[in-house]
Amino acid sequence: MNIRIERAKNLKEKPEGALGFGKNFTDHMFVMDWSRDKGWYDERIIPYGPMVIDPVAMVLHYAQETFEGLKAYMGKDDNVYLFRPEMNARRFANSNRRMCMPEVPEDMFIEAISEIVKVEKSWIPTGEGESLYIRPFMYANQSGLGVDEADSYRFMIVLCPVGAYYPQGVNPVKIYVEDELTRTTVGGTGFVKCGGNYAGSLAGQVKAQKLGYTQVLWLDGVHRKYVEEVGSMNAMFLVNDTVITAPIEGTVLAGVTRDSIISLLKSWGYKVEERKIEIDELIEKGKSGELKEAWGTGTAAVISPIGELFYKGDKVEINDFETGELTKKLYDTLTGIQWGNIEDKYNWRKIVK
Amino acid sequence: MNIRIERAKNLKEKPEGALGFGKNFTDHMFVMDWSRDKGWYDERIIPYGPMVIDPVAMVLHYAQETFEGLKAYMGKDDNVYLFRPEMNARRFANSNRRMCMPEVPEDMFIEAISEIVKVEKSWIPTGEGESLYIRPFMYANQSGLGVDEADSYRFMIVLCPVGAYYPQGVNPVKIYVEDELTRTTVGGTGFVKCGGNYAGSLAGQVKAQKLGYTQVLWLDGVHRKYVEEVGSMNAMFLVNDTVITAPIEGTVLAGVTRDSIISLLKSWGYKVEERKIEIDELIEKGKSGELKEAWGTGTAAVISPIGELFYKGDKVEINDFETGELTKKLYDTLTGIQWGNIEDKYNWRKIVK
Questions:
Q1: Best residue in B46, B60, B210 to probe A by mutation, most A CBs within 10 Å?
Q2: Coiled coil: which residue ranges (chains A, B) (predicted)?
Q3: Of A271, B88, B156, B296, whose CB is crowded by the most CB atoms within 10 A?
Q4: Do B29 and A55 touch (CB under 8 A)?
């Protein structure tokens, strides 16, 4: 790629105090356009700022849009690190295939991320648990109201310094098991990061929050009994000494954190079952005390302990609403690797060169 | 409402020849903003043109977006007519409730449409089958990457003169029955007009078109056997002397054309069954000759005859791939009422005052 760089004339003040998630954006952004004739063209890093969009840009009507999420970490060696960016590149290509959108080749995807991160190196925060969140995204910007593949798309990357995703930190959260609304089925879009999944699941999240729960646990859309995702995270359950998590079979997102956690667990000798588990079984195991720990995994929050499940009137507390030992160890190990405080046996960290 | 009108300084040339669908837009558009503090505010009719959007406007990432579609017709009495706009107003409110978006009150919705249509009266085409397509739509324009209800939304209306939706006209189309990809389930968003539904179903449409079919017929996402929608239209089947169509039970869009057609059919003495019908049964009825006619209904195309169904290797031709008598009568009657050539017994037409 031949990336043109146009530097911002006035740089923003860096935010101070708690960073939150997705609130402050850096001085520049990466933009690249695609047309059916030209393919990808005009790759550029330009000052972050508002864009022009037509009222009938197809994305505003038919939601052809996909995204990714990963983080850059400031190493103590003053190198900048990414965590398994090739996994995001592949998943993004998968998403775009399902949504009939052109793919961004893996090497271009990673090069674009590396270049914008280098330009914004001074924005990578260095406080405890802080990192630079990277949001690649793409949308149909062709004008027109016919429902069809678009002839033009825009791919962009924006960056924001982030602290912990949940303001509560790594404390356990209460989860509402949704039994009316559904998220997806095999054959749908549940396994891809497209906007429509998030828009559709918002009603469940809002309902859960109104009832005093932090997030919603989704059941499968066909039988309404198999456990799938929690909010926008993969969900894992330690039952006796086995960790159970939903399989990647077309409904659940193939989380990078999920995959990394499974590797860690296996290396520690845990049995990991990627299988369907019925909510009734899970609630039962909760009542009998066999459900020892539970947590959600995702790039933004890394690990989020689950302290309570509510399902059809049944309330189950997990590990006395304390963060479990294994949950804590997983969080410490994975963030330790990500921030460079623990040996990276798996070669997951990639230096941004 | 107190709508501010800012007239365009330079008016566009009206398009000549075949209008197509969703290609040419008029000189003005209606815009109104919503914030959690103020509610709806700054309702205005301004020159049609590009807008400014932030790269992290939530709609570009999480697809909180809904829309409607209806038409304005130029009467021979020089009055402008809408067709059952209150149905669109109600459905739009339904969509927004499901998507956790603020509602546009019914009277505001209709007033906004009426005002922009009056300003653009000269754009209403008068050729055979031509009308002014009205596209109200709404999206989350708050900046930020947290997944949550937005604090600000924009509601807009754009207009485009249209001819027939399908360039082939009211000729029968070949339909591919999709047996791998799914569209929705009860508890999902299938019954609302949100962008995500259209983005998710594009893969089915593209697949069907590659195989030589015009559109896809969706089966239910749970059992994968009950007939739901065809493309973005409701589907109806004349089996012997009974018309069968999928019920409005949470997966299928409550089409205004669907509802109107059902009223016409009942008034003519036809038995109408709003019920689940298995695709196997339908294919069987097609082979035995009991499936006399089939058609899709929607605002854009009005009625689109189905001449062939393809399902898992089985091909069924309907009415010798000719537009059926009843299909033709329905099309003529409904368009006759819409364009004011037939008595409007149901008081469906509303004069734009």
A1: B60
A2: none
A3: B296
A4: yes
- What is each CA distance from B273 to B236, B270, B289, in whole angstroms? 10, 10, 19
Give the one of A158, A194, A222 whose C-beta lies nearest to B199's C-beta: A194
Amino acid at A150: A
Answer whether A183's CB lies under 8 Å from A201's CB.
Answer: yes
Query: What are the φ/ψ torsions at residue B344 (nearest 5 degrees)?
Result: -95, 75
Query: What is the signed CA dihedral for A265, A254, A205, A166, rounded to 10 degrees?
Result: 50
B241 burial type by CB count under 10 A (0-12 exposed, 13-18 middle, 19+ buried): exposed
Which ipTM value was assigned to this complex?
Answer: 0.97
Q: Could you give the CA distance from residue B82 to residue B116 in angstroms, rounded to a whole number?
A: 12
CA dist B189 → A62, A70, A198, A258, B231 (Å): 13, 28, 11, 27, 15
CA B149 to chain centre: 26
Q: Could you say which DSSP state residue A158 is in? A: E
Cα–chain-centroid distance for residue A73?
16
Kindly determine whether residue B145 and residue A137, on different chains, have CB atoms separated by under 8 Å.
no
Contact B250/A at CB under 8 A: no
**R_g of chain B computed on alpha carbons:** 21
CATH superfamily of A173-338: D-amino Acid Aminotransferase, subunit A, domain 2 (3.20.10.10)
* CB neighbour list of residue B150: distance below 8 Å, 6 or more residues apart: B58, B64, B101, B140, B141, B142
Angstrom distance (rounded) from CA B330 to CA B296:
11
The residue of A62, A101, A230, A249 whose CB has the most chain B CBs within 10 angstroms, and thus the best one to mutate to test that interface, is A62
| B106 neighbors B24 (Cβ within 8 angstroms) | no
What is the dotted CATH code of the domain comprising B4-162? 3.30.470.10
Return the structure tokens found at A289: 């005390």
- β-partners of residue B82 are B72, B350
Q: 3-state DSSP call for residue A314? A: strand
Q: How far apart are CA A56 and CA B157, in angstroms?
A: 10
The domain ranges of chain B are: 4-162, 173-338
Asked whether the beta carbons of B316 and B276 are under 8 A apart, the reply is no
B236 bridge partner residues: B245, B295
**Residue B87, number of CB atoms within 10 A of its CB:** 18
